[in-house]
């Protein structure tokens, strides 16, 4: 792979910004660190990395003022319904429960010793952020479109089957790369792409293509982690800096931290950013308002519509976000045709235009444009009983809207 000055020459030839250079790491040292992390992960009951180290600062707005607050009844919401939803959230090991309705927060509860400024582990809430980052880079002219080849930014893939991959495939999980999985064997590509201190090399050189790009939906952290690499090569900025300066600061959101593979290395864009609950709320509001914030368009016109448009390969997934789609009682993260754990939806969403950020531990941020409503629940995995119900939690709140206060179209 081109590196250092040579990469800068390749970038210039391709009309790209020179990507940030990562500190070199000796192969033997990289493998030693990887094996230590792998052993720690296997000992962690959650099956996740034992710790996110090292972390890099993600800047945000200089003055991240609190969101406006209003009484729920002034925004057409029954406070008794919110109280019931708050009790459900509290019993579900939540860290935060926020509700936005018609221009203000009508609910802002924090649990378990967390507060407004607490940095919360995002898990896969980070994936919609990758789509927002790509949209911002398109708006800035750093990426031509969703259909630009990924190989324009990863020239190592030119002349290989991976050259058929488009930017959109990194966001809608149709990259053709190996589906997410788990193995206790340290040589498996899933763990190496997740834990290796030079995981940029693993993503480029080792992670296998199993299907033609665009032909199949396969959920994978590796696919989403490639976004950080694309953003850095497209913009010449570190992923944390780009997200902070070009996304969080313009929407008035507080920053946080993101896991990088080694000091000065590549960020894990697909899973491991820590931000306060209000920052996730502001990101959802950006999408609710069609890519505009504070009177300024940040995402290209029509981009949010593209994010909310599912593919034939998965009718419940768009670009980084989940959509209501046709009703199914259980919807998982993996390919719909594969046996895998699935999240309960005991009833159809009351609003067909519902779309959501959805991550491990049932962390959800629901966006309902027709109701001018955003509902957020972050936290640890809920108890197994009662089982978490994605649709019922939102519908409980939608049922608390004043009659005639919103035009909701039922899910198919």
SSE layout:
Blueprint: H1 5-13, H2 27-43, E1 55-58, H3 79-91, E2 94-101, E3 104-110, E4 120-121, H4 126-139, H5 167-171, H6 189-195, H7 199-206, H8 221-235, H9 239-248, E5 256-259, E6 273-275, H10 277-288, E7 292-293, E8 296-297, H11 303-307, E9 322-323, E10 330-332, E11 342-344, E12 355-359, E13 363-368, E14 373-379, H12 390-398
Antiparallel strand pairs: 1-5, 2-3, 2-14, 4-6, 5-6, 7-8, 9-12, 10-11, 12-13, 13-14
Provide an overview of this structure.
- The protein is an alpha+beta fold and 412 residues long.
- The protein folds into two domains: 32-62 and 126-259, DD-peptidase/beta-lactamase superfamily (Beta-lactamase), CATH 3.40.710.10; 72-122 and 275-398.
- The protein contains twelve helices and 14 strands.
- It has helices spanning 5-13, 27-43, 79-91, 126-139, 167-171, 189-195, 199-206, 221-235, 239-248, 277-288, 303-307, 390-398; strands at 55-58, 94-101, 104-110, 120-121, 256-259, 273-275, 292-293, 296-297, 322-323, 330-332, 342-344, 355-359, 363-368, 373-379.
- The strands form four sheets. A six-stranded antiparallel β-sheet has the order 3-2-14-13-12-9, with helices on both faces. It has a four-stranded antiparallel β-sheet with strand order 1-5-6-4.
- A hairpin with a 4-residue loop joins strand 13 and strand 14.
- It is globular.
């Amino acid at each position: 792979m081109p590196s250092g000055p040579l990469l800068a020459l390749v970038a210039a030839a391709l009309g790209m910004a020179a990507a940030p250079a990562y500190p070199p790491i000796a192969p033997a040292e990289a493998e030693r660190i990887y094996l230590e992390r792998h052993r720690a992960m296997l000992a962690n009951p959650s099956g996740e990395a034992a710790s996110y180290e090292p972390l890099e600062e993600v800047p945000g707005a200089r003055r991240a003022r609190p969101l406006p607050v209003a009484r729920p009844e002034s925004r057409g919401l029954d406070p008794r319904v919110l109280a019931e939803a708050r009790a459900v959230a509290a019993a579900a090991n939540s860290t935060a429960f926020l509700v936005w309705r018609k221009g203000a927060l009508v609910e802002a509860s924090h649990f378990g010793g967390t507060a407004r400024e607490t940095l919360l582990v995002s898990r896969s809430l980070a994936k919609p952020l990758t789509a927002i980052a790509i949209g911002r880079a398109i708006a800035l002219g750093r990426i031509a479109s969703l259909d630009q080849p990924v190989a324009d930014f990863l020239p190592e893939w030119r002349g290989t089957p991976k050259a058929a991959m488009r930017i959109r495939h990194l966001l809608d999980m149709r990259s053709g790369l190996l589906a997410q999985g788990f193995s206790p064997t340290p040589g498996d590509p899933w763990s190496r792409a997740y834990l290796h201190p030079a995981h940029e090399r693993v993503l480029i050189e080792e992670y296998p293509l199993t299907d033609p790009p665009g032909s199949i939906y396969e959920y994978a952290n590796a696919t989403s982690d490639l976004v950080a690499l694309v953003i850095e090569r497209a913009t010449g900025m570190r992923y944390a800096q780009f997200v902070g300066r070009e996304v969080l600061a313009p929407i008035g959101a507080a920053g946080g931290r993101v896991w990088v593979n080694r000091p000065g290395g590549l960020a894990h864009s697909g899973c491991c950013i820590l931000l306060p609950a209000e920052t996730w709320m502001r990101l959802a509001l950006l999408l609710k308002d069609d890519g505009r914030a504070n009177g300024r368009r940040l995402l290209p016109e029509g981009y949010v519509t593209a994010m909310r448009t599912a593919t034939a390969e998965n009718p419940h997934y768009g670009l980084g976000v989940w959509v209501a789609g046709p009703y199914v009682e259980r919807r998982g993260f993996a390919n719909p045709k594969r046996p895998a754990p699935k999240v309960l939806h005991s009833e159809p969403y009351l609003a067909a235009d519902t779309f959501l950020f959805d991550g491990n531990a049932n962390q959800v941020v629901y966006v309902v444009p027709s109701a001018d409503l955003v509902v957020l629940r972050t936290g640890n995995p809920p108890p197994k009983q009662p089982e978490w119900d994605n649709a019922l939690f939102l519908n409980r709140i939608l049922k608390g809207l004043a009659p005639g206060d919103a035009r909701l179209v039922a899910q198919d």
